Amino acid sequence: MKLALIGAITGLVLSISWTVWGFWTAIGILLTTAIFALIGLVLDLIGFSFKGIVNKLSAKLAE
Question: Which of 11, 19, 21, 56 qualifies as a cystine partner to 33, CB 3.0-4.6 A?
């Protein structure tokens, strides 16, 4: 659930910055937040973790 929260916060921050260009982007805020939260949830469900990726990358670099 951590990545879903990170995704939601990232989407919210990005979309709030877009509100500078007008009111209608409020719809974009809701959609972007939902999309990023969904991406984070899917990554959580498949077991994606930044620690695992870093470990795999460092192991490949050490070879």
Answer: 11
